[in-house]
């Protein structure tokens, strides 16, 4: 009986810490678990999390003391040591040079990917593939300032994939010479089945008293409250529009900027217009998309922007900025609207367009968006692309 290839996945965070990169691993691995064995190496970050956990997509192995800052620093060393133990116990090192039944998959240029890089000194013939998920500025600060170029120029990195054309171009600029397939993050097909919220205020959808009141258009954002996501710009634009339109801004997500944004809400006298929901489980987001009219995230940087794709698939009129990978799918006036980065006045202009759309205009845009999502951004199609890449890597003799 043939042994399934083993893919060691190196990701700094993993469930229950779920962002676009972690969700991609989860969705792809669940669809490919019959073809590959996934062992996910990650930082523990919380003491209540199991060091070893069996999940539907494979096995999660968490390393560290259960302290976020410390565990990320330990991950390159503890993660590499753990994989060495697993490899030796399974004796895979006796035949990796022949059939390559083992792969290393690094998620982003991160602490976790350093562990995979270290392992290449012990197993030089095991393929290492790195998936780029970073936003615009990720490689300009901290560790990534120098690690980005070192890793991508290293002969130890055998394959690169990128979730957007923007990141593909950045990899080229960093000096990577090999092929770079663009494999985006995806969305679940169930979002396409959501009946979009009516553009008539207060009509359609599940009403949540006090949060989604009847009679007001709902502007929604599912975003971590961090500087890069530009929620401060959204609040500034809302303050400029509050006398013109009856709307409510609903913010799902938490983060270090929350106190500042709450203070900004008070300063702009938006207390009755803005609601902070805090952390919202990923499983509840489809319900919130369904109750919303417009999705807005005026990003300062973005690798791709999975939340945009989800909102678009769910039938929200979507507004973003032309940064990072967003222009791959958000075409101004066709699949949504674009506003200039760092410009609340331009966001006001774009919001006015979205707020006055009639039902026919909304329906036409939603139909265009869903056609794009069906063609390129469903998780089944994304997983199939990664499967083809993994098969080619695990058996170089196979053709594409």
UniProtKB/TrEMBL annotation:
User: Transmembrane region positions?
Assistant: 6-25, 102-123
Transmembrane as a keyword of this entry, yes or no, is yes
Report if keyword Membrane is assigned.
yes
All copies of domain Glycosyltransferase subfamily 4-like N-terminal, residue ranges: 18-187
Q: Which residues form a coiled coil?
A: none
Instruction: Domain (Glycosyl transferase family): give its ranges.
Output: 214-370
Q: Which InterPro entries match?
A: Glyco_trans_1, Glyco_trans_4-like_N, Glycosyltransferase_grp1
Q: MF terms per GO, please?
A: glycosyltransferase activity
Which UniProt keyword terms apply here? Membrane, Transmembrane, Transmembrane helix
Q: Which Gene3D superfamilies match?
A: Glycogen Phosphorylase B (3.40.50.2000)
- Quote the protein name from its UniProt record: Glycosyl transferase family 1 domain-containing protein
Mind giving the lineage of the organism this protein is from? Bacteria, Candidatus Giovannoniibacteriota
């Amino acid at each position: 009986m043939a042994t399934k290839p083993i893919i060691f996945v190196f990701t700094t965070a993993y469930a229950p810490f779920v962002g676009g990169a972690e969700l991609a691993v989860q969705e792809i691995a669940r669809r490919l678990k019959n073809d590959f064995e996934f062992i996910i190496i990650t930082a523990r970050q919380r003491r209540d999390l199991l060091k070893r956990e069996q999940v539907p997509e494979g096995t999660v192995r968490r390393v560290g003391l259960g302290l976020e800052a410390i565990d990320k620093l330990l991950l390159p060393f503890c993660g590499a040591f753990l994989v060495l133990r697993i490899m030796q116990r399974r004796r895979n090192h006796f035949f990796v040079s022949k059939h390559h039944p083992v792969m290393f998959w690094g998620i982003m240029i991160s602490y976790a990917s350093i562990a995979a890089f270290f392992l290449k000194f012990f197993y030089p013939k095991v393929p290492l593939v790195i998936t780029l998920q970073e936003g615009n500025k990720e490689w300009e600060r901290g560790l990534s300032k120098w690690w980005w170029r070192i890793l991508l120029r290293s002969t130890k990195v055998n394959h690169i994939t990128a979730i957007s054309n923007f990141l593909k171009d950045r990899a080229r600029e960093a000096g990577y010479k090999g092929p770079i397939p663009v494999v985006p993050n995806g969305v679940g097909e169930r979002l396409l089945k959501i009946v979009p919220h009516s553009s008539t205020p207060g009509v359609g959808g599940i009403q949540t008293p006090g949060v989604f009141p009847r009679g007001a258009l709902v502007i929604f954002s599912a975003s971590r409250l961090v500087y890069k996501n530009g929620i401060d710009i959204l609040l500034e634009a809302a303050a400029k529009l509050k006398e013109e339109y009856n709307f409510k801004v609903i913010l799902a997500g938490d983060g270090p900027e929350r106190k500042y944004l709450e203070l900004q809400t008070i300063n702009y006298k938006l207390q009755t217009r803005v609601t902070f929901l805090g952390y919202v489980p990923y499983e509840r987001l489809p319900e919130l998309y369904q109750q919303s009219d417009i999705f807005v995230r005026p990003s300062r940087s973005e690798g791709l922007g999975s939340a945009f794709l989800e909102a678009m698939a769910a039938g929200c009129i979507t507004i973003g900025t032309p940064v990072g990978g967003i222009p791959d799918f958000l075409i101004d006036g066709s699949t949504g609207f674009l506003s200039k980065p760092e410009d609340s006045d331009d966001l006001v202009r774009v919001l006015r367009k979205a707020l006055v759309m009639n039902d026919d205009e909304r329906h036409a845009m939603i139909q265009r968006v869903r056609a794009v999502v069906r063609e390129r951004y469903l998780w089944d199609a994304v997983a199939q692309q990664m499967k083809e890449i993994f098969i080619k890597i695990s058996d170089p003799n196979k053709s594409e």
